[in-house]
């Protein structure tokens, strides 16, 4: 009896309380320079709210995304590299007759199986030519914002078509889109917090071109010039919105139960003129670090160590399995995943779960990172109007990112074995790619009055 009692004490009959499912707030900036926020070393532009959020959690120093907008969104929503979706070249342009393929089981669909309320507030950019491709048909309970990139921040028009929607129906809320997105995100938090777990995805169209902002935001930057000054104001406006979102989470009493993720969807365009990617090479639309290694942080009070820095390489595709595992979702992607659960890397300091990370593969280019080594191959320029054409002779660059993080000197000729290894891995991925879907604008294309709605 004494022995049984001892066993009973060691193994209590009452099961441990299951971990509480966190609310997830994912704030995605658009075309943000890697080094423009204070938490990534920026000094010119004031981002106190984003910095405060980052300081409360982990900064991701080697978080990789795709070189442009749509593919990064496809990657994190599916856990699969965009070359599997035909989205590896360019973005989903206004006239595109395709989107994120419908056989993908995307993140909000998985989270709903774990009891989550799901909302997208901001930019979709994954297809709007047919209703089945719109967010409310793809696992989002609620949608607010726009489908295209690069819309006018005040008129909400892109290429002559109106592009502002609520629950995938035209909406005429007036105002600066960064303000509208922040306001709606706050409203969503107020309405859902404390009523079960929620996933709130907030892809701001800030700080993407066209560079537009109410004048009061640029007043803080008298020393900056031209588009850089406007961009700084736009980032300040987005930072203010981030502050409002975090405040709403705190005010509703769910901060301890909320995981925040902040990232850019690609590196800064026009680095050195408009954006600042720090010392990292090049910017948006390239496979150099300035194009794909972005500003990012994750914060969850009490779970992720405040002030920590994760230097292990991770990729946007990892969010899918990481978040589904965290939330106990039971139904997920039926298709093979590229992403891996990075939670142990972030909270326990474990190494990256990846043997290698594909940065992209197209008929004209490709890049892959394995350990400290990175291979970049270029055969020609990726052209969304002719995405399956292959270019000329292949140029190969090999970098050791530990010794040369800014990709100044290729080591390809000195390390033929390493080139062979990485090129073999890259070719292995390339063989699995489906043809890029991008096409030129059809000559007879007529812009609808409202994007996503048939005239
Ligand atoms: Ca972008």
TrEMBL record:
Gene3D superfamilies referenced in this protein's UniProt entry, alphabetically: 3.30.1120.10, Alkaline Phosphatase, subunit A (3.40.720.10)
GO molecular function: metal ion binding; sulfuric ester hydrolase activity
Residue ranges constituting the Sulfatase N-terminal domain according to the UniProt record: 22-329
Signal peptide: 1-15
Stretch list, region Disordered: 433-455
InterPro entries, alphabetized: Alkaline_phosphatase_core_sf, ARSB, Sulfatase_CS, Sulfatase_N
UniProt keyword list: Calcium, Glycoprotein, Hydrolase, Metal-binding, Signal
Comp. bias intervals (Basic and acidic residues): 441-455
Protein family: Belongs to the sulfatase family.
PANTHER family: ARYLSULFATASE (PTHR10342), ARYLSULFATASE B (PTHR10342:SF274)
Protein name per Swiss-Prot or TrEMBL: Choline-sulfatase
Organism: Fimbriiglobus ruber
């Amino acid at each position: 009896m004494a022995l049984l009692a001892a066993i009973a004490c060691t193994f209590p009959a009452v099961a441990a309380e299951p971990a509480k499912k966190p609310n997830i707030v994912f704030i995605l900036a658009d075309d943000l320079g890697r080094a423009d926020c204070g938490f990534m070393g920026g000094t010119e532009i004031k981002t106190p709210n984003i910095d405060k959020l980052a300081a409360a959690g982990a900064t991701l120093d080697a978080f990789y995304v795709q070189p442009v907008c749509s593919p990064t969104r496809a990657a994190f929503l599916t856990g699969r590299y965009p070359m599997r979706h035909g989205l590896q070249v360019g973005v989903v342009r206004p006239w595109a007759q395709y989107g994120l393929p419908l056989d993908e089981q995307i993140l909000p669909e998985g989270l709903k199986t774990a009891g989550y309320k799901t909302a997208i507030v901001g930019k979709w950019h994954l297809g709007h030519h047919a209703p089945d491709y719109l967010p409310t048909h793809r696992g989002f309970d609620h949608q607010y914002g726009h489908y295209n990139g690069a819309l006018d921040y005040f008129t909400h028009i892109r290429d002559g078509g109106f592009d502002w929607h609520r629950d995938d129906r035209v909406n005429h809320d007036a105002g600066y889109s960064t303000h509208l997105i922040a306001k709606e995100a706050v409203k969503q938090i107020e309405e859902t917090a404390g009523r079960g777990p929620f996933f709130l995805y907030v892809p701001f169209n800030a700080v993407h071109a066209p560079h537009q902002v109410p004048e009061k935001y640029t007043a803080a930057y008298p020393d900056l010039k031209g588009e850089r000054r406007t961009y700084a104001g736009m980032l300040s406006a987005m930072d203010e919105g981030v502050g409002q979102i975090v405040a709403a989470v705190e005010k509703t009493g769910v901060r301890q139960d909320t995981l925040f993720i902040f990232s850019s969807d690609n590196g800064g365009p026009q680095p050195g003129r408009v954006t600042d990617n720090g010392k990292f090479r090049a910017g948006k639309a390239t496979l150099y670090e300035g194009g794909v290694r972005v500003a990012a942080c994750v914060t969850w009070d009490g779970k992720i160590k405040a002030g920590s820095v994760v230097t292990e390489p991770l990729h946007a595709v990892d969010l899918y399995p990481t978040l589904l595992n965290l939330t106990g979702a039971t139904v997920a992607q039926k298709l093979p995943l590229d992403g891996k659960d990075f939670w142990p890397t972030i909270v326990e300091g474990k190494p990256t779960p990846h043997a290698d990370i594909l940065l992209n593969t197209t008929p004209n280019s490709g890049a892959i990172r394995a350990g400290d080594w990175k291979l970049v191959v270029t055969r020609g320029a990726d052209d969304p109007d002719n995405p399956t054409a292959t270019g000329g002779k292949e140029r190969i660059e090999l970098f050791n990112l530990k010794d040369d993080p800014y990709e100044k000197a290729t080591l390809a000729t000195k390390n033929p074995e390493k080139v062979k290894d990485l090129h073999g891995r890259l070719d292995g991925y390339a063989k699995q790619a489906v043809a890029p879907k991008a096409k030129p604008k059809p000559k007879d294309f007529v812009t609808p009055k409202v994007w996503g709605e048939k005239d």
